[in-house]
Structures are given as structure tokens and as C-alpha cells.
Amino acid sequence: MVPVLGEQEFRDLMAGVCAPVTVVTTADGGVPYGATVSAFASLSLRPPMVTVALDRASGVLARITDTARFGVNVLGRSQDGLALGFARRGTDRFAGVDWHLDSGLPRLAAAPGWLVCELDRVVDGGDHLLLLGTVTRARTLPGAPLVYGHRTFGTHSAYADRLHRGIRDQVAACAR
Fold this sequence. Notes:
Strand order of the largest sheet: 3-2-6-9-10-5-4
Number of helices: 5
CATH topology: Pnp Oxidase, Chain A
């Protein structure tokens, strides 16, 4: 008989896995909705797709499944305040936040990464649902990402401290 892994043991193990920090947004009737999500990853290049996992009880999840569209704001190294604000329940998460509609979805002005997604399908994932989204638009600015690991926010220190050219610049120089 295989022993059953305890919930707390699994939580503790997964706390050590660094994850990107995003704010997933949607709009319904012009009203913005958003939630902090660290269960975000790229899925496919052809076509460009991402995955986002949301708790089944999430109000944002219900709005996304109704509208079949969502935005992903990829947060930068100093945006832990935004992450905490969008993680709170029962508050107006957009109050005091600089945001605007971009392709009909709420985009946080300060987020260095932005994706517009069409909902492709929803997959059962235990107490969460996994949303598969086709990316129809993306924008990015250089900057260190905000990550979550060991129950704290941080960044990829090598990226934040680097003084040399990025790999894309180095590859482009070699191609000349």
C-alpha cells in the first residue's frame, strides 16, 4: 500500500518551488475583476498558449468562464504590494491602482508583462481548475520578475544584478 501524502507536507514541499507572480484579470459588463495567481506557466509555442490555475471558489474564475477571456499581468520585482492587494478577499482590488482597459481587459499600468488570452478550455485539477488560454497579444518590458518561494516574495537575483548584455543581445551579435 502506497502511503498518502499529507496536505501540509505537500504544501511545505511546494513552498520551496519558486513561481512567477501574476495578476489575472477579466472584465464583465465593464467591471474589472482580478486575482493574484502564482500557478501560471507557458504551455505551447505553436499556438502560443499559457496555463493558469484558479481555485474553484474564485469569483474571477466564474467571470472568466462566462466571458471566455482573461488577461495576465506578469509582475516585476518590486510589485509585491500589488500581489498582496489582489490576493485580499472582500475588497475593491482595483482601488488606488493605476490600470486601464487593454483589448477589453484590465491591464495594470506598472506590470512589465502583459498577455491577452482567449479561453481555449478548462481542465479539472482537484480543488482548482486549470485554464488553457491562447495568447492573442503580448507586451513585455525588461526587468527582474517577481517570484514567490518559501512563502515570501523575491526576484531572480542573477537577473536583477546582471550588468552584462542579455542572451538575446548576445545571440543577435553572433548572427551579424
